[in-house]
């Protein structure tokens, strides 16, 4: 019987299966960070349990680490306590950690792939919903809650009910200035924030196959914003080339055995998905969000929608009305005329080297507009070092942007990088929820190219607006 | 984990859909390292508004939340469940829950019961007219009973069984420790290990 990619990876990890019970799934890689792990370690201690497989577990500090003065003690006592707690827990339980200041520190979803720890056909979990990022390698990767973190620490398994599968096919070729971010914002706008619920999305089609690993990670990263448990892309030569030579990628005979296995990880011809969606990649243009959930997005060339006339569904009307009120926007305003105060380039969605390169190429020779602050926060310390080796930091600094240390930063404002009430941002992150980037802050989700062009013009813009 | 069979209490009609976990508890409350005491973070941004329904006197002491569809979307933070539980909520009723939130709830003994949106609307009206109505959520019968009305709800058999028995997940899994041992002997050798750390 033909199977989908997700079904194959699932089947290869079933430890135990019984009628009426969830399958018990083996977990190949468990990523930890400071926010969702302290209570899990506490649970282990209380029950007198150990970490079953420290050698399949790795921790990094990212969510509330500062992006300035990282050599000084963390000023916020609560953040410092969380960081100290993670360090102590890792020491007590024998878990590898990359602390602030370490060359491998960074956002957990940037660190796993760059170390070569994320590989095709694996099961990867983390107490963070954007774990879906790792699906870009053809891994089954999903976010879990703290109780599940404790469960994986104690047993290296998780009881799970099988997911449904959805094929998201992006046909054709993306045009100039259209990126992976625009693809996924268009997908979410099409299927809605609940459209992926219960599904693993498999992205396929020519436009997806042409994406780099970084672009694929951006797409899979935001699967959760469509409500999906995970996103996946079948591994191919692009995947293998990315992995080869990385610190924890297999080598020698192991490499050959691994690649032979990885090549089997494709949805079989004739395999049935529970749902299918097709997006015309040729027709896509840069996308931005106007509202307060990632599904409230439109092409940059559009105008702020009218809640009364542009939505058929009563619920959508209500939520559009609330969104416009919160965002301080008038229906009918062209999106290109929306003025921003802050531009944030970074996050597990768009904080990788390729993203910084793309934005730097746009910004080179320009200045950040008066009254706009631009924060550039590399996804990991390594991305930062590599960017500096290429001189990207100079491009940003010369333009008047701030060049920061690695972390989640303003994506969720758990550290001092926040929007002030009423402040508006163009952000390459993943969530435009009310207050996400700071209480009262207003977020427009954008690609790195749009972020860079917006920083220069001060209003939501794409690089094509700069030529004019 | 405490056993859950039936719960009777007053309920809060929350006429909002797409209530994401950033609204249930903002990220600033996530810095704690304890597992309790998150009640002050529950709906913190909305509660700053004195008019917000949870601030209204007649809904003081509610223990059942009746919410719009797509409750618990967004971040995987389990603190959302803890905040609801610490505040005193035992049950959330909605037409649709986000998957991670639902999984987290089951693990912490918070019942997430799926009702038809029509029934949710009826409950909203009823609770707005009569905030002190006693609502009974009967997990055994999969029923919500209020003022003579009976609404059935959905919850999967396994979650229901675990809640009824008050069983915690890890103990359940560790009953199969030998099966895990055996699985590990068959894992391919090329699968990566984090230890020892390889030079990058």
Count of helical stretches of chain A: 17
**What Rg of chain B is obtained from the alpha carbons, in whole angstroms?**
20 Å
**Could you estimate the helical fraction of the residues of chain A in percent?**
25-40%
Helix/strand-derived class of chain A?
Answer: alpha/beta
Strand order of the largest sheet of chain B: 1-6-7-8
In what range is the share of β-strand residues of chain B? 15-25%
In round numbers, the mean pLDDT of chain A is: 96
Task: Tell me the major beta sheet of chain A.
Answer: 5 strands, parallel
Oligomer: heterodimer
Distance between the termini of chain A: 56 Å
**Shape descriptor of chain B:** globular
Helix tally of chain B equals 8
What distance separates the N and C termini of chain B?
Answer: 44 Å
Radius of gyration of chain A, in angstroms, nearest whole number: 21 Å
Query: Structural class of the secondary elements of chain B?
Result: alpha/beta
Q: How many distinct beta strands of chain B?
A: 8
* Strand segment count of chain A: 19
Helix proportion of chain B? 25-40%
Which stretches of chain B are poorly predicted, pLDDT < 50 over at least 5 residues? none
Strand content of chain A: 15-25%
Mean pLDDT reading of chain B: 94
How would you sum up this structure, described in words?
The complex is a heterodimer of chains A (468) and B (200). Chain A is of the alpha/beta class and 468 residues long. Chain A is built from 17 helices and 19 strands. In chain A, strand 13 and strand 14 (297-299) form a beta hairpin. Chain A is globular and about 55 Å long. Chain A starts with a helix and ends with a helix. Chain B is α/β, with parallel strands linked by helices and 200 residues long. Chain B is built from eight helices and eight strands. The chains are: A alpha/beta (468), B alpha/beta (200). At the A-B interface, helix 2, helix 3, helix 5, helix 10 and helix 11 of A face helix 4, helix 7 and helix 8 of B.
């Amino acid at each position: 019987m033909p199977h989908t990619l997700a079904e194959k990876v699932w089947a290869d990890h079933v430890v135990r299966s019984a009628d009426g019970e969830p399958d018990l799934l083996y977990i190949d890689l468990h990523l930890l960070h400071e926010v969702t792990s302290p209570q899990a370690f506490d649970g282990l201690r209380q029950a007198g349990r150990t970490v079953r497989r420290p050698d399949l577990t790795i921790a990094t500090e990212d969510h509330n680490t500062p992006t300035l003065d990282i050599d000084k003690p963390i000023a916020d006592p609560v953040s410092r306590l969380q960081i100290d707690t993670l360090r102590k827990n890792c020491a007590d339980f024998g878990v590898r950690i990359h602390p602030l200041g370490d060359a491998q520190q960074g956002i957990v979803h940037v660190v796993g792939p760059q170390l070569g720890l994320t590989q095709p056909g694996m099961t990867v979990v983390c107490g963070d919903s954007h774990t879906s990022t790792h699906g870009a390698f053809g891994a089954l990767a999903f976010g879990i809650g703290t109780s599940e973190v404790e469960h994986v620490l104690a047993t290296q398994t998780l009881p799970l009910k099988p997911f449904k599968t959805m094929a998201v096919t992006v046909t054709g070729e993306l045009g100039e200035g259209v990126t992976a971010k625009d693809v996924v914002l268009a997908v979410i706008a099409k299927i809605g924030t609940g459209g992926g619920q219960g599904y693993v999305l498999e992205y396929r089609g020519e436009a997806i196959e042409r994406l780099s690993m970084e672009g694929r990670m951006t797409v899979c990263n935001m699967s959760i914003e469509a409500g999906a448990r995970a996103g996946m892309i079948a591994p191919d030569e692009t995947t293998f080339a990315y992995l080869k030579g990385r610190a924890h990628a297999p080598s020698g005979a192991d490499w050959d055995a691994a690649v032979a296995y990885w090549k089997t990880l494709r949805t079989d011809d004739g395999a049935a998905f529970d749902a299918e969606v097709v997006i015309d990649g040729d027709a896509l243009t840069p996308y931005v969000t106007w509202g307060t959930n990632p599904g409230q997005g439109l092409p940059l060339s559009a105008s702020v929608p009218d809640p009364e006339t542009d939505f058929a569904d009563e619920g959508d009307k209500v939520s559009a009305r609330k969104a416009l009120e919160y965002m301080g926007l008038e229906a009918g305003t062209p999106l290109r005329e929306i003025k921003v105060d802050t531009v944030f380039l970074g996050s597990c969605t768009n904080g990788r080297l390729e993203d910084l390169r793309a934005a730097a190429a746009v910004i080179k020779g320009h200045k950040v507009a008066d009254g706009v602050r631009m924060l550039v926060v590399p996804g990991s310390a390594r991305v930062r070092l590599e960017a500096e080796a290429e001189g990207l930091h100079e491009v940003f600094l010369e333009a008047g942007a701030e060049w920061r240390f690695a972390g989640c930063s303003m994506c969720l404002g758990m550290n001092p990088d926040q929007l002030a009430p009423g402040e508006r941002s163009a952000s390459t992150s993943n969530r435009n929820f009310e207050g996400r980037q700071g209480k009262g802050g207003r977020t427009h989700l954008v690609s790195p190219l749009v972020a860079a062009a917006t920083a220069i013009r001060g209003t939501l813009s794409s690089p094509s607006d700069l030529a004019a | 984990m405490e056993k859950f069979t039936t719960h009777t209490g007053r309920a809060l009609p929350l006429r909002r859909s797409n209530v994401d976990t950033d609204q249930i508890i903002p990220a600033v409350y996530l810095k704690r390292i304890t597992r309790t005491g998150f009640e002050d973070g529950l709906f913190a941004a909305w509660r700053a508004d004195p008019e917000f329904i949870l601030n209204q006197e007649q809904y003081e002491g509610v223990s059942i939340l009746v919410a719009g569809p797509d409750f618990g979307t967004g971040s995987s933070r389990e603190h959302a469940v803890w905040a609801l539980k610490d505040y005193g909520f035992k049950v959330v009723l909605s037409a649709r829950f986000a998957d991670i939130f639902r999984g987290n709830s089951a693990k912490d003994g918070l019942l997430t019961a799926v009702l038809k949106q029509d029934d949710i609307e009826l409950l909203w009206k009823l609770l707005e007219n009569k905030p002190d109505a006693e609502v009974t959520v009967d997990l055994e019968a999969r029923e919500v009973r209020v003022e003579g009305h009976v609404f059935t709800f959905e919850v999967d058999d396994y979650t229901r069984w675990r809640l009824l028995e008050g069983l915690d997940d890890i103990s359940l899994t560790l009953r199969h420790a030998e099966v895990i041992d055996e699985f590990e002997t068959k894992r391919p050798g090329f699968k990566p290990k984090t230890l020892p750390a390889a030079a990058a």
